[in-house]
From TrEMBL:
Alphabetized InterPro entries for the sequence: Annexin, Annexin_repeat, Annexin_repeat_CS, Annexin_sf, ANX3
Protein name: Annexin
Domain notes: A pair of annexin repeats may form one binding site for calcium and phospholipid.
The UniProt record lists the keyword Repeat: yes
Entry similarity comment: Belongs to the annexin family.
N-terminal signal peptide: none
Length: 365
């Protein structure tokens, strides 16, 4: 029998406080780690304690619907009212607003918002009112639409969502586009990169963050050594199998064992043995097993540095992590770059779009 031991919270960097990764999806699953700070929301979602957006304690769905309708109808749009309401309600509360709006006004709130708003402001506001699984599905479809594919979006979403979330994303994609997500990804990608994404789409990743299997991490470390550093060429399939199917806690011990065997970090080996999109996917799996907060902080920084801003990536991360761990992401951003995320957003964006993101930040500190 394999030797095992408790991780003592080793997966906190991946799933907040050892719980299943939430990202706001409804029906995320039934399990929670003992002592977890994740709590089930009324729609089955899990809400982390390190998010910036919480349930509004004075939530009145009828009043919110009335105020939103007033902000939309007539000449001009009251963008500030829309921002104030939607950035101070949880996703579950926003879904209640959408339902009540349809019943009261006979119209879809998201359609009215799309008709009145434009540009990046429209994108982030509509992201807030969508169910999270549908938002992820739409982002994946957008990444594959037209000539070329935005592989970094495929990696970001599929590498950071839990098994249950991926199942719900696939269902939302099927319902929205009448197509299978796996078939579309298979058509838009190729080779070992495609293999890695399709394995993640199978939603078979080990999510047991409480126990590490000693025999398995030793055999995995040896297998990775034989698949890369010990041979001419690389057995990419072995790297994909280990990095895409093992739990974060299991991977962390595997990486330590790998370094003891090879005197190289797993990151250095991946960089020397692989290239292109597969290298990016494998490095993301490694980085997220260590800290998703650092990963997202780095993604945000890349989206705003240099000439121009990748508003789609910035919006997606700010919305998807706002109820989970955006406070942790802000902490890591400050450590990495010496300035607050709030200050960066204030400098790099403008107008109502900027005001929305600053509200999601929750603080200027």
């Amino acid at each position: 029998m394999a030797s095992t031991w408790s991780t003592g919270g080793a997966c906190e960097s991946w799933w907040p406080n050892g719980g299943y990764a939430p990202v706001g999806c409804g029906g995320i699953g039934e399990q929670l780690a003992p002592g977890s700070d994740l709590t089930p929301a009324p729609n089955g979602a899990f809400v982390g304690s390190r998010g910036t957006v919480k349930d509004c304690t004075c939530f009145n769905v009828g009043r919110d619907v009335d105020n939103l309708r007033k902000a939309i109808v007539g000449l001009g749009t009251n963008e500030q009212a829309i921002i104030e309401i939607l950035t101070h309600r949880s996703n579950w509360q926003r879904q209640q607003i959408c339902k009540e709006y349809k019943g009261t006004c006979g119209r879809e709130l998201i359609d009215d918002l799309k008709g009145d708003l434009s540009g990046d402001f429209k994108h982030v506001i509509t992201a807030l009112v969508l169910p999270p699984a549908l938002f992820d599905a739409q982002e994946l479809e957008r990444a594959m639409r037209g000539p070329g594919t935005n592989e970094s979006v495929l990696i970001e979403i599929l590498a950071t969502r839990s098994n249950q979330q991926i199942k719900e994303i696939k269902e939302a994609y099927r319902s929205e586009y009448k197509r299978e997500l796996a078939k579309d990804i298979a058509a838009e990608t190729s080779g070992d990169f495609r293999r890695g994404l399709l394995i993640l789409l199978e939603a078979r990743r080990d999510e047991n963050c409480q126990v590490v299997d000693e025999r398995l991490f030793k055999s995995d470390a040896q297998a990775l050594y034989k698949a890369g550093e010990k041979r001419l060429g690389t057995d990419e399939a072995k790297f994909i199998e280990v990095l895409c199917l093992r739990s974060p806690a299991q991977l962390l011990t595997t990486f330590d064992e790998y370094k003891a065997i090879t005197n190289k970090t797993i990151e250095d080996s991946i960089k020397s043995e692989m290239s292109g999109d597969l290298k990016d996917l494998m490095l993301t799996m490694v980085n997220c097993s260590k800290s998703t907060s650092v990963y997202f902080a780095e993604r945000i920084h890349k989206s705003v540095k240099g000439l121009g801003t990748d508003e789609n990536t910035l919006s997606r991360i700010m919305v998807s992590r706002s109820e989970i761990d955006l406070l942790d992401i802000q902490d890591e951003y400050l450590k990495l770059y010496g300035r607050s995320l709030y200050a960066t957003i204030k400098d790099e964006t403008s107008g109502d779009y900027k005001n929305t993101l600053l509200k999601l930040c929750g603080t200027g500190n």
